[in-house]
Design a protein that fits this description.
The complex is a heterodimer. Chain A has two domains: about 80 residues, no CATH class; about 250 residues, Orthogonal Bundle (ABC transporter involved in vitamin B12 uptake, BtuC), CATH 1.10.3470. Chain A contains 13 helices and two strands; from the N terminus they run βαααααααααααααβ. The longest helix of chain A is centred in the C-terminal third of the chain and has 28 residues. The radius of gyration of chain A is 23 Å and the shape is globular. The relative contact order of chain A is 0.20. By secondary structure, chain B is an all-alpha fold. Chain B has one domain: ABC transporter involved in vitamin B12 uptake, BtuC. Helix content of chain B is about 75%, strand content about 0%. In chain B, helix 5 crosses helix 10. The N and C termini of chain B lie far apart (about 60 Å). The chains are: A mainly alpha, B mainly alpha. At the A-B interface, strand 1, helix 6, helix 11 and helix 13 of A face helix 3, helix 4, helix 11, helix 13 and helix 14 of B.
Chain lengths: ~375, ~325
């Protein structure tokens, strides 16, 4: 019988079964390395700077001085906090694209406390109040799409996306309401004199409290997702709603509960952004992080500890690229471009973990019978 | 009356940007590919056309309008198709998650466009704002003597040709999807790729083509945005990104029917500009009014899900990667 060699495609793709963890991580590392090389080449083509120096400069931008290092840490914690908020929702296969909005309403709640509770409560009591208010605001923002998803099966991707824009307009509203000085259309630094509602410095560092809060969350979410009954329910609903229903899990309740939790943690991120970092509120308080973290959570496979690595990587890239941009008078946007390229590589690498590519037999040594 | 005319005109200009985006996305989504990268595609379409035209206007003494238009169109279509190709390669061949890839694509394309937009502004020198006047004027050429028709002329004939192209494309896409056998095949890929595959339809080819062509149409939205809405200037305030997301929302609003997207887009435009024409609003309450298009979309989302009419549902395999061996 004549073989139809010419009809066989060049590549054959098949599912790879179990891939050892080391191999999967090796593939991811190779992808990351390739991504770094490609981005270095792009930066090289723009500024004609030696690629190795590029990363030297980037490193300086992220960790060059003590202050820079703490800003890098602060931003990593912020990204991580949102990622932790998204993880439960995403594990349930609920596409919560609305972190941006959930962070913003959390931030609004914090800022409102800072403005309206001034002189009414003590500056130590206000922080827990802000924490709770932000959490509640975020929870409400998560509850609304969760409720309608559970009740009527609305498309959550678009619902949460629209909630972002509603939150952005809400922020604009409050910015116009609270603007200071009048006519500037910004809120300015809130309580810059009294530092009321600001995170107190610990060990002389401004951002230690951010780190503490987020690290507590890292452990909590890890335990919650992996070792609790509710975490198990989330996993089952995510894998198959029918299975979940069959084993008597109240799917609707799980969806709503998980979205409330997800929104609440994103609300905490808004609290961190306002009380622990910017001390102001604007439409860029979330700054697109709500979208970036979706990728962090996804790539880390919702493992909180891996998320630490990915958020640190992304913040490092952002800070580094910004340093290059300012040193060579480029626009900051070069950092988003580089981030995007790196994300493409890491996302693409998943393919080589999940699938096996076999070359056409003519090219391989094995001869079939 | 003049107020109403100007609101109507503003709505159509606004609506056309998202209409292009939505029509392209409908074509893409009908193949089961959920391209959340529409804002990114629009970014690419706008910056590519701007770059192409900028150099043409710079090196030619008297730019010829028709050449300007052609250059802009070709650049926008090529760039957005390349974007669509990248998205297709990642999601169809490498089977990445479509949502995640779409978002990553937006980050990349937003950075790319604003980076080059910023550089162009710098290159343009002077006031630090790039301005491709000749091309923008060419795109905004109106039907001659439209004023002689009075208000009717003002309302319906006072736009550049892209406004009518958008409407034409909406009907063309609808005709293609519902009245041709290729369109039927495409819809079957979006509904159930395994069945389509078994019927001998090349799923990969259909998905690639519809995503790339859809991206080209969405990219025209970016072109229209920069040439008409922004009058040939570049602003890196990210407003095109918001418009791109509205285009994605409009697809849902129109429940995957292109002709419905036409009036939907103008309605969105009207809702977005309403605050400007309502008297007695303070600056802060204006912001509340700007929520309207998003709130309406949310309400439509809920209503469509509540009603649960099979006619209005998304393609069945929307957002799912297809792998033949996975059953």
């Amino acid at each position: 019988m004549k073989k139809h060699d010419h009809k066989e495609p060049l590549f054959r793709i098949s599912k790879s079964g179990y891939v050892p963890l080391q191999k999967a991580w090796a593939i991811r590392m190779v992808a990351l390395l390739l991504a770094l090389i490609v981005s270095a080449l792009i930066i090289f083509s723009i500024v004609k700077l030696n690629p190795i120096k590029v990363y030297g400069t980037m490193f300086q931008g992220a960790f060059g001085t003590n202050k820079r290092m703490w800003v890098t840490i602060r931003d990593t914690m912020m990204l991580l906090c949102i990622g932790l908020g998204l993880a439960p929702a995403f594990k349930m296969r609920f596409w919560n694209i609305g972190a941006e909005g959930q962070v913003l309403v959390g931030g609004i709640a914090s800022a409102a406390c800072m403005i309206y509770l001034r002189d009414k409560v003590s500056s130590t009591a206000v922080l827990p109040i802000m924490f709770v208010c932000s959490m509640l605001a975020g929870a409400v923002w998560g509850f609304i799409p969760g409720f309608f998803k559970a009740k009527y099966g609305t498309n959550e991707t678009l619902f949460t996306l629209m909630m972002n824009y509603i939150a952005i307009q809400l922020t604009s509203y409050f910015v116009a309401l609270w603007e200071n000085p009048y006519g500037s259309n910004t809120v300015g630094v809130i309580n810059s004199r009294s530092k009321f509602g600001w995170f107190p410095p610990i060990f002389g560092q401004m951002y230690v409290l951010n780190v503490i809060i987020v690290l507590v969350l890292v452990v909590t979410i890890y335990v919650y997702l992996n070792y609790s009954k509710q975490g198990f329910e989330i996993a089952v609903v995510g894998d198959s709603e029918n299975t979940a229903r069959y084993c008597g899990i109240d799917v609707k309740r799980v969806i709503i509960r998980t979205m409330v939790i997800s929104g609440a943690i994103c609300g905490i991120a808004g609290f961190l952004a306002v009380a622990g970092a910017g001390h102001t509120i604007s439409v860029s308080t979330a700054g697109g992080r709500g979208f970036t973290t979706i990728i962090v959570a996804w790539m880390a496979k919702f493992n909180s500890f891996v998320m630490v690595l990915f958020s640190a990587l992304l913040v490092f890239l952002e800070k580094g690229a910004m340093e290059i941009a300012s040193r060579y008078q480029l626009s900051d946007y070069v950092s988003s471009m580089v981030t995007g390229i790196i994300l493409f590589f890491i996302l693409g690498s998943e393919f080589f973990i999940n699938f096996k590519v076999t070359l056409r037999k003519r090219f391989s040594k094995e001869v079939s019978q | 009356m003049t107020q109403f005319i100007s609101l109507f005109q503003a709505s159509i200009v606004f609506g056309t940007v998202i209409l292009f985006g939505a029509v392209g996305e409908i074509l893409t989504e009908k193949s089961g590919n959920l391209n959340l990268g529409v804002p990114g595609i629009m970014y690419l379409g706008s910056i590519a056309s701007l770059i192409g035209v900028f150099y043409y206007e710079r090196y030619v003494e008297n730019p010829i309008p028709i050449v300007c238009i052609l250059i802009a169109l070709v650049c926008a279509v090529i760039a957005s198709m390349l974007g669509g190709l990248l998205f297709s390669f990642m999601t169809i061949t490498l089977r990445c998650n479509q949502n995640v890839m779409g978002l990553a694509f937006n980050i990349f394309a937003g950075g790319f466009a604003n980076f080059y937009g910023g550089s162009l502004n710098k290159l343009a020198g002077g006031v630090g704002q790039i301005n491709v006047l000749a091309t923008s004027a060419a795109f905004r050429t109106k039907i001659p003597n439209y004023r002689s028709l009075g208000p009717i002329g003002e309302l319906f004939f006072s736009y550049g040709f892209l406004v009518y192209l958008a409407i034409f494309l909406a009907f063309a896409v609808s005709w293609f999807l519902n009245r041709t056998s290729v369109g039927l095949n495409l819809r079957s890929v979006g509904e159930n790729p395994a069945t389509a595959d078994a019927a001998g339809i090349n799923v990969t080819k259909y998905k690639y083509l519809s995503t790339c062509v859809g991206a080209a149409i969405s990219g025209l939205g970016g072109l229209y945005y920069v040439m008409d809405y922004m009058k040939g200037t570049w602003d890196s305030d990210g407003s095109i990104e918001g418009l791109g997301w509205l285009a994605v929302a409009l697809v849902i609003f129109a429940s995957w029917k292109a002709p419905r997207a036409i009036w939907g887009s103008y309605l969105f435009g009207m809702l977005s500009w309403a605050y400007f024409y309502i008297p007695g609003l303070t600056r802060s309450s204006q912001e509340i009014f700007k929520m309207l298009p998003y709130i309406v979309t949310v309400l439509v989302l809920i209503f469509v899900a509540y009603q649960h009419k099979p006619d209005n549902q998304p393609p069945n395999a929307l957002g799912l990667p297809y792998f033949r061996e996975e059953r």
